[in-house]
What we know:
Blueprint: H1 14-43, H2 45-71, H3 78-85, E1 96-104, E2 107-115, H4 116-121, H5 126-145, E3 152-158, E4 171-177, H6 188-193, H7 197-200, H8 231-257, H9 263-288, H10 295-304, H11 311-314, E5 316-320, E6 324-329, H12 333-337, H13 350-357, E7 363-370, E8 374-381, H14 390-395
Amino acid sequence: MRVGEGRDLGAEDRATLAVLVREYLLDGHLIDRAGMPHLIGAFGRDVMRDIAIDEWMGASPVYSKRMQRTLGFEGDTVETIFKNLQLDIGAPPQFMDFRFELSDRDHGRFWLDHCGALMDVEPMGPDYVRAMCHDIEDPTFDATATASNPRAQMRPVHRPPRMPADRTPHCEWTVIIDPSHPALPVPRQAVAIGATRAATFELDPIDPDDPGTHDYPGPLLADLRLEDWSASALRRIAGEVCLQGHLLALSFLAATRERVDTDDEARELLRHQFTGVAGVAATRLRDALALGSELHDAAVVLTRSPGLLPAAYTGVRVESGDRLVVRVDRTAPAAADGAWPSLLDAGHLEPLDAIVGAVDRRFRCTVMAEDDAELVVEVVRGEVEHPVPDDVRLTEFSTGADFAFVDRGTPVVLGRKGGA
């Protein structure tokens, strides 16, 4: 039997696909929880902050426009911006609990009833909170808005550090579009990321005849109940969200390269990031899909790991049967971009080990063959249980590592006040 051939996630039903999309959105948010501790250790808080700003300004305008086109809600209104946030790895549902209010096409507000990112950073002290909620958010929120309207401004009503310490909602922002606002240019970082293969990679189109919701041109909903969407749409959304993660990682790499002496240093930091988020994502997938600890369970997790999808972009193929084999195509678009899979070689299997180790700590990857065209590894079970990698433990610091989604029932339509 071969696993991982053909369309990504093609065998999954709508309910499982909905679970996977939620997981991928949260996993994408955890990318920074995996990478930023290493930047703090290498450079300190201020450089970490500057890299984070460049990282999000590079990726979010690119992937925001991709999602708008995919689901047919391109526009220049506040409603477009809000829909964008609902499908952004920077705002995974419930963990970053965005609530919205629309006044008219050019005015609205949002607030966070729960901010998982704040829960992660608040114990580190007010300086780290200000770095995230002030220094990073101000330019990156506006950068995201440029994908919809360059004259949109997101401005805080209040934000952390919280006073009093238990203040809720955690923050509140207005969003206003006004012709008098200076038009923001597309960030230089986004121009560079827009030239990557990931930015323009074509995924399978959504089948409009597949039962269920397949686009989002209608009214803004308070929450997206993904189970209502068609299987075809969910597969496409899953692919888009996985590409969001690759674009964010590529933007992290580009920003880091500007601050180190050698490319090897930047790639090593990216490898730590990949290992950390891959291990946590694999643990969450194992639990979300109620898997066991056998070789076929490891195959399931590998074929659904967001860092290895979409397969046509990453060049990663999984073969399962009597043996579990992973093939990494060195000529795939991800290799040309220098994305996560390009970091895998005979001496650096840590991300793959983190994935299979989440299924059974005795699993490890061994090299079968490697040349300029392909890396081939086999997953084997040894006698020794290996410890959780340090990169994974650092990422598990985030409350997102064990965050549980809940069913919020039928989504509420958020109309504009006065029907404007």
